[in-house]
Amino acid sequence: MRFPVFVELEGKTAVVAGAGPIAERRIRILEEFGANVTVISPELSQGVRDLWREGKIDCIIRPVEKADIGGAFLAVAATGERTVNHQVAVWCQEAGVLVNVADQKEECDFYFPGIAREGILTAGVCAGGEDHKLAKSAAEEIRILFAEKYGMCGGGVPSPGKEGR
To answer: What is the pTM of this model?
Structure first.
């Protein structure tokens, strides 16, 4: 059973192995919450490349290596290759780094919740990695509730709220 917890990411290093669509969603969330994101991938999606050009993230264009994990607060393995994602999970376990593995929920230390934000309120919704559509739908309902009931004139910042493992 997963315990919901909110952690401070501001200024902490997050290493993301991979730069495809799933990795990009997670990169955007980590960056939005203040993490110093370093993406390591032989290829970059256009969206990841744009974030890099805007100075929002750092990128290293090559395959991920064990040494890349050291010093990270958390990591994401979202390469699209099962063997590489598994290897990143093993390296993280050895280094004591929290890891989210996009294609294997059993290897995850944490999941990415559906996120609802309005002003100072933040809610995360998770369906245990079992039903992403349900979590996404629930987060959207919470976003609507926040906006209707607690909306702040110009101060609320709704989040994209993509739920994943």
So the answer is: 0.86
